[in-house]
């Protein structure tokens, strides 16, 4: 049975590692009647962590999906990993969902990944709630954690469920909206009871706050609330739906999923008050990069975005889609708009973890799976007719890279095929061959992500892989003006070769790369040979005079030359220009350039001094820092060569709690011993390259 768009809810469960996301996912399935028993992570049998690497490591690596029927509503839940190494799975789940539920440990409070996830949600203005968990822990405190959330995110969470007791006295939660108490029953689904007398005042105070949040969404509701100081439950639901869809408040839930506490009222709130897909928008992008909002609309022609690609040993290629408009039907003809190719849809599926369930159709707002779609890949737009493409997933740049090769030469092609496939499955993982350094380089969000992929290659493909720190792509430039001339002259039987080029070079501002100026007058070099001159200059820039690195940020002005009416041709001027450029560069005080990265580090404040000291030792330039509630953000510019193993260094400094983002900033000059070492290493590489 398919559900209409207004009867669908998409919820991404996210949070710092070890906050109980997969446990909540499992117990939601139990409460929804999908499974008969909630399994523990230790058992290796949970619905969401089903891959061999997840079972072995007892962590979530991929996004998993399940769905539950509640009060006539279909709720799609996405369980996401907590480690920053697998942030791509979180981002695709956020894109598929209209509501994010962030898990916050009732003992530890807001942690580093919580901060990063919150900022990501801020970027899309995505509605979100918080689930304060593990309240059966003796050191957990619901109110203290609420205060921590308020301090760090400058929001006033609105309590939906109140805990009854804490630590060893914790016995369940109270649903403030529906005015019901739920007593935890251990392994069984929680039991509904009347609200105990000692909690009546706390519930009444929380209910007033809930009415205020509902009234914020609508002038008529606000008017009634101000007049009567009361709203009916239906009015509250109406207002809460509108207000949450506009991200006007943050609902807060209490519980302990492992004890089945707080599950039923969470499900009821999501079914009754969480945003349905029609309250949200996606976006399309044109050829110029201009974005246009796109409504999630069941009445428009079918369109969908491929949010994930993965490969199953039984079902083959699986393409996960979020249907944006219309209705996607099995056995239908569609167009892969991104590739401009027809795509025949065979069977359609939804899933409960790894178990596929066949469906006939998916309505706008729903998420499903197509198997064996030949042309589809992640970020492709699928539609009934030609239409603009949807904006692709916004993924962070990889922060950790290694150069790889197969120990056995015969396995190189097979290794490459597997790495291409891995990069298709996880868009935060990159694989490319660097022609400049002659290396195959893989990049990802951290050492853990890369090691899991390489372990999988070894286990499944029986390929032994060698890894090493990748070489840096340095550059060369000039620091002053210089000129040179070169005459290419070659005489042989018949026509010879002749071309003379005079040119001047000068430095350009950093990042401007290259500028060609034709200053020839009087036909010293005929116009039809000028393209050959420029080709020669570009060829000359491929190998600088210091360490044979590419040359950047240089203006080249061709001032004069000479040609022969019989022996001149384009090749002669190309050779002359290439050599003239190289001669001029030697006279222009060349210097080496190294890539500088923008670095943002997220750490607990207690590690701030150690991290700052480490960055200074890495030739880093600190740009600024912010601290709030025990978590610090440090912004710096650091040479790429110093960051090749930073994920390992930071983990060591911060006992595994630190996290960072990195992106290319600019190239900057280097000199002295550092430049000497680079030149020496490059010379050794060139000798080795020649021997091969």
Structure at a glance:
The protein is α+β, with helices and mostly antiparallel strands and 692 residues long. 29% of the residues lie in helices and 33% in strands.
List the helices and strands and how they pair.
Elements: E1 8-15, H1 21-31, H2 52-57, E2 64-70, E3 73-79, H3 87-96, E4 99-105, H4 112-124, E5 128-133, H5 142-153, E6 158-159, E7 161-164, E8 172-175, E9 180-185, E10 188-193, H6 200-215, H7 219-228, H8 233-245, E11 251-254, H9 263-273, E12 281-285, E13 291-295, E14 303-312, E15 316-325, E16 327-329, E17 332-336, E18 341-345, E19 348-352, E20 355-359, E21 361-363, E22 367-371, E23 381-383, E24 389-390, E25 400-406, H10 412-425, E26 430-434, E27 439-444, H11 447-461, E28 465-468, E29 475-478, E30 482-490, E31 497-507, E32 514-518, H12 530-541, E33 554-562, H13 570-587, E34 590-604, H14 608-617, E35 621-628, E36 631-639, H15 646-653, E37 659-670, H16 672-691
Parallel strand pairs: 1-3, 1-4, 4-5, 5-11, 6-11, 32-33
Antiparallel strand pairs: 2-3, 7-8, 8-9, 9-10, 12-13, 12-24, 14-15, 14-23, 15-22, 16-21, 17-18, 17-23, 19-20, 19-22, 25-27, 25-28, 26-27, 29-34, 30-31, 31-33, 34-36, 34-37, 35-36
